[in-house]
Amino acid sequence: MQLPEQQVAVLEAASADEATSVDALAERADLPPETVTGAAFELETEGLVAVEERVDETVTLTDEGADYATATLPEIRLYEAALEAGADEEPVQMGQVIGASGLEGPQVDIALSNYARKGYGTIDSGEITADPDADPSADAEANALEALSDADEAPVDAVDVDADTIDQLDRRGLLERRESTVREVILTERAVTELMAGIETAETVGQVTPELLTSGDWEDVEFAEYNVEADAEEFEGGKVHVLRQMSERVKDVLVGMGFQEMDGPHVDADFWINDCLFMPQDHPARTHWDRFAMEQPSHIDELPEDLVADVERVHREGLGEDSEGYHSPWDEDFARALALRGHTTSLSTRYLSGTQIGEIEPPARFFSVEKAYRNDTLDATHLLEFYQIEGWVMAEDLSVRDLMGTFEEFYAQFGIEDIQFKPHYNPYTEPSFELFGTHPTTGELIEIGNSGIFREEMLEPLGVDCDVMAWGLALERLAMLTTGAEDIRDLHGTLADLEFLRNAEVTY
Ligand SMILES: N[C@@H](Cc1ccccc1)C(=O)O
């Protein structure tokens, strides 16, 4: 019989009498464990070995756990200080004992919350007592920490610590549990027979190399077969963040649909963020409740004078016979105030006004995928900052059909075919629509964007005399639909779920 070199090595290292772990075989055969696992599976298909699997739970101490293993648990330090202060005789002021214990910061709370639970004494109205019969050397948690720090990454069964103590240490964040699959290999009878008859080593090649290709040797060598089921080492390499992947993909799609990208400041004057959008200055979204104002610098230097005058005129008086202005105060200083943009529609007003890249002639399509900032209450669908997919199309005679058709075409590229529209109100669009999509796992309808056709009152001061349809869509919400994430906080921010980010696929 002929077998590849690594399989022969594994056969020779294994035994017919007792199962040997992959790690032990790897050491004996001087091969990486992944290679041994791969070879073992090959040998199993040949009927030469049996591979048995079991899941071992191992525990390791966290950094905090390791610290306590060397420097004793905070509650024991508190007990020792309490004894020292005579708290076994009569209650002592807590502050005095804590001071003497040398405990600091969060350790104080940790000590206090475990002290009474473990029967070291009582804590009542600022005084502490120590039970003279308590015995720190019999503290199950302290002893377990010591046992575990000696047996690094020990399988739970192998250390002499009871399950309740392990649970308790786990709750305290002092250890980490991990599961690992242990594979053991045992020779079959057939393998024993074959080994006695002698097994030859077949030269096989595991990888095509440039040398093999240029020399032409690839034609003669024998290639090792792939075993796609073999376990390989898990490799957590760097990876493009899910949202970044999503944003790149959105940009590709929009560029494919003929859009050009806009760019502009994150901090901008309220003039560009709101006034140019015919947003009245007393609109609730313009109060400090919603907006992150800039303190330094607080106001923009430059604004195009003519445009300011035109915007003010329309705010005050409206436009033409059918339009009413707001007849409310309009203050230029208020318009100059700087804030983190609450939407990226500030980029659209800059571009439409002709001040960003010069006059834009219809037909034209522009987009951005950029951050916007809002003082929202954090929840499963809201963060303080998010990415908006801003966009607009400037052309003659646009209608709601064009708007809806554009969304259908856009979302279809992500496999989303069931968007729904709901009539809405924005001061700057008429008509306006909110967009909704169905979450793939919860089935809930979630709002994914806001859109409409810009009003005359907005376009006339900007100097645009044809139709413009526009939207702001939420990148995170789109990502929730494509990745199945149920909570936006899993995607980014301090609570992001690393496991999810490692494994989530952006599908489209
Ligand atoms: N600015 C709107 C989105 C929008 C842009 C353009 C037109 C209509 C709506 C928002 O943030 O919700």
From TrEMBL:
Keyword terms, alphabetized: Aminoacyl-tRNA synthetase, ATP-binding, Cytoplasm, Ligase, Magnesium, Metal-binding, Nucleotide-binding, Protein biosynthesis
Annotated Mg(2+) binding sites: E430
Molecular function in Gene Ontology: ATP binding; magnesium ion binding; phenylalanine-tRNA ligase activity; tRNA binding
Subcellular location, record wording: Cytoplasm
GO cellular component terms given for this protein: cytoplasm
Pfam families: tRNA-synt_2d
Binding-site list for L-phenylalanine: T345, Q388, I389, E390, Y428, F454
Gene3D superfamilies: Bira Bifunctional Protein, Domain 2, Winged helix-like DNA-binding domain superfamily/Winged helix DNA-binding domain
Record's subunit section: Tetramer of two alpha and two beta subunits.
Residue intervals of the Aminoacyl-transfer RNA synthetases class-II family profile domain: 250-496
Protein name: Phenylalanine--tRNA ligase alpha subunit
HAMAP family in alphabetical order: Phe_tRNA_synth_alpha2
PANTHER family: PHENYLALANINE--TRNA LIGASE ALPHA SUBUNIT, PHENYLALANYL-TRNA SYNTHETASE
Family: Belongs to the class-II aminoacyl-tRNA synthetase family. Phe-tRNA synthetase alpha subunit type 2 subfamily.
Annotated catalysed reactions: tRNA(Phe) + L-phenylalanine + ATP = L-phenylalanyl-tRNA(Phe) + AMP + diphosphate + H(+)
EC number(s) from the headed UniProt entry: 6.1.1.20
Cofactor annotation comment: Binds 2 magnesium ions per tetramer.
UniProt cofactor(s): Mg(2+)
GO biological process, one term: phenylalanyl-tRNA aminoacylation
Primary localisation category: cytoplasm
Class of this enzyme: ligase
